[in-house]
Amino acid sequence: MNYRRDPSVSEWDSAHFGVRIATFGPTEERGVTHAVSWAQANEIALLMARCPASRTDLTLSLAKEGFTMMDTFVRYKLDLLAHPEIQAKPGGAAREACQADASEISQLAGEVFANYIGHFHNDPRLPGDTCTDLYAQWARNAFTDTKLARAVLIGVDNARSSWFALLKDHGDGIGEIVLGGVAPEARGQGYYSTLMLHCLMWFQAHNFAIVEIDTQLPNLGIQRVWQRLGFEIFYAGHTFHKWLPV
Ligand SMILES: CC(C)(COP(=O)(O)OP(=O)(O)OC[C@H]1O[C@@H](n2cnc3c(N)ncnc32)[C@H](O)[C@@H]1OP(=O)(O)O)[C@@H](O)C(=O)NCCC(=O)NCCS
Question: What is the pTM of this model?
Answer without folding.
Answer: 0.95
